[in-house]
Amino acid sequence: MPKLPRITSRKMLAALLRAGFYIHHQTGSHINLRHKLKNLHVVIPRHTKELAPKTIKSILAQIELTIDEFIEIL
After folding, report:
1. Residue 6 pairs with which residues in a beta bridge?
2. Rounded CA gap, 57 and 37, in Å?
3. Which residues of 24-39 are buried (b: 16+ CB within 10 A; e: fewer)?
């Protein structure tokens, strides 16, 4: 299993937009994304620091992507 990358929320947002998500709305410092074709919904925190590894794992689980697939999107 590859190592989980440490990335900022900006890079996570860019990767998810490439993966077929769009910004549904933003509430405070959190961006709500939805997938164009699948019935998927995920919330990304919009902070300047790197995302915690547990947060990245949680996001990947919600959008049904493996670490390998996510690294390819990056």
Report:
1. none
2. 22
3. eeeeeeebebebeeee
Q: What is the pLDDT of residue 48?
A: 86
Identity of the residue numbered 2 = P
Residues 44, 50, 56, CA angle at the centre, nearest 5°?
Answer: 50
| pLDDT for residue 1 is more than 80 | no
CA separation for the pair 36, 23 (Å, rounded):
10
Q: Are 12 and 73 in contact (CB under 8 A)?
A: no
CATH of domain 9-73: 3.30.920.30
* CB of 15 closer than 8 Å to CB of 64: no
Whole-prediction pTM value? 0.88
